[in-house]
Each structure stands twice: as C-alpha cells, then as structure tokens.
Amino acid sequence: MHDPKIEQALADGGIQYDYLEEVAVSQIEIDPGALNNIRLGEALKPEALVRYQVALDTGAVFPALVLYRHKKGFRIIDGMHRTSVYKRGQTQVTDAYVCCLTEADDGRVINLLQRTLNKLHGEGLPLAERIEQARYLHQQMGYTIADAARLQLLKAGTLARAIKIAGVREETVAVFGDEPSIAAAILHHKSGLPDTALLELRRITDDDIFRDACRLAHTARLGAAAVKEFSREVREARTQSQRLAVVEAWRVRHQKDVQLTVSGNVSHPTSALRSAFVRQAQVQRYFANDQKLGALTGQELAQAIQDTQEIVKWARKTVTKLQRLQRKILRAVA
Question: Per-residue pLDDT tens for 220-273?
Fold first, then answer.
C-alpha cells in the first residue's frame, strides 16, 4: 500500500520513483550492501521476522517496499525484514516504490537512503545504532554533525559527544598498542572506565602520562569527582617529572584499592563515597578489636576522619532530601 511518509521523504530528497503495484518477490535481492547499511551488527532481527510473519498470516497489509533496479531485478533500499518474510512464505508479488537510481551513478544516494528511511516506520533503530549510522554519515559521507544527527533523529550535541568519545577510545587503543589486554580492560563497557572519565583524562595531552593516568584511574576505581580532581592536578603540573609525581602520589594514596583490583577481588569503578564507606567499615573492624587498633597508621586515621566527614555530609543531604519528599507527600494527601 502507499506510504505517505516514504513518498514525502523521497520527494524531499528529490528522488524520482515509480509506484508498481506488482513486483515479483523472486526478483528482489537482499544484497550484502543493504545488510550492512540498513542494519549494523545483527542485520536481521529474529523477533522482528516473527512479528512480521504473524501479522502477515493474520491478513495485515504492509507499506510498499523501496527498491532500485539492478540488472534484471531489484535491490532493497527499505523493507529488508518484510522481504525476508515474503521470501520465506507464500507471497509471490508485492507493491514497491522503485527509485530511478543506479549503483554506478547514485551509490552515495542509495547508501544514504538505506541508512535513513528505516526510521520512518517498522523496526526502528535503537539509539546506539542510530548514533553509529550518524557517525558514518558525518565521517564517511561528509555530512555536518547537525545534518547527520537530524537524519537519524538525534540531537546534534548527542552526536558530537559520541564522536568525541569514539575518538578518545580509538586514541586509548593506540596509546596501549603494545598492551591490548589493558586497553580492553580500560574500555570494557561494564567494568572499564566510564566514557566521562575517559574524556576527562584525555585532557592530559602527554600520551605517556595519559597512559599511566588511565591505568591508575581504572585500577584504583576512581569515581567521577576523583577523576576530575586527578586530571586537574596532573594538568596543572608544569613538567613531566612533576606530572609523574602527581600520578605516583595518587597511586600511593589509593594503593589498597589498586591491590584489590589487581588481586581480582574488585573490577568495577567505585564512587568516592562508596570507597569512603568501604574504608570506614575496615576502620570500624579495627576499633571493634583493641588488639588490631595499634595497626592503624597516622595516615589511615587521618583518612578515617576525612571519610567520616564525607559520610556525615552525604547523610545530612540525604536526610534533607527525604524531609522535602515527606513534605511533598503530606501536601499531596492533605
């Protein structure tokens, strides 16, 4: 059936097309280019195929495919899942918009349409995939960040940040080129450094210092606030030896956290407050056992005092928030 959204999109792009009521499904080719351009990663989603098959079996009518001519048949611009279901079932013919495009002369336009028309209906792309498609449009096809974001229904700021993060991740891989396992650990999406931390550390322009800083921030499981302070102190140091001294001072300060990570007991980033709670629990165990109390150093006692102050500050803020919430609830039920 006719699809006003598709017709409008083709008209906006100045694409000439013919609407054909009957196109033989056997003449439609699902080519590798469509698989790579329309979808990244898993090209055909099994759950989508099932939904389309069930809908087709119950008499649903789908929008027309979008195709272009190739040799004696057609290739897909939009409608990969529908075509797959048609080929698996008993559908012999379907309607389609056949664009007046050729791979030889209009490869760039075909590429763009394959990456953008899917958002208009059907199995829409998840956010991460739309960002990757928009990155391709910007970096490989020359679109501005604003235009690439618009074509994938993104905010320009979201795309700009994603491009910056991708660049920093690529730089991190290059810096740790001789230690790929370390790079993989630092960039791991769950247990590695968060992207915000990586962006902050990349403000350190010296690659050797950046390398040491990433390693320390990861193994010491520094939280966002700590990473920001760490990065600032390193950047404020005037010489490389001073910057190395800052990194070493932070390593000494967080040596227990580093030891826990290296031993495999902990492998995820920890907030500064969480670290304070952990250290405070350790101090409390010492105070519960008078024989162990003497094992605490002056530095550890000073850290315990600082941790207590941070925890009390957090507790006061939490109590204030809860009191505000309580007042709102009481007003709502009054």
Answer: 888 888 899 999 999 999 999 999 999 999 988 888 767 665 555 544 445 566
If asked whether residues 102 and 53 sit together in one domain, one would say yes
Phi, psi (deg, nearest 5) at residue 36 = -75, -35
Q: How far apart are CA 45 and CA 39, in angstroms?
A: 9
Q: Position of tokens 């979808």?
A: 39
Which residue, among 193, 172, 171, 191, has the nearest Cα to 183 in the 3D structure? 172
Task: Say if CB 276 and CB 254 are below 8 A apart.
Answer: no
Domain encompassing residue 177: 126-183
Residues 172 and 67 in one domain: no
Report the alpha-carbon distance of residue 260 to residue 278 in Å, rounded: 12
Residues 235, 150 within the same domain: no
Q: Using a cut of 0.70, tell me whether the model's pTM lies above it.
A: no
Rounded to whole angstroms, how far apart are CA atoms 115 and 40?
Answer: 10
- What pLDDT digit, counting tens, does each position of 18-37 carry? 999 999 999 998 777 666 65
Q: Minimal CA–CA distance to 152: which of 131, 123, 122, 128?
A: 131
Q: Report the domain count for the chain.
A: 4
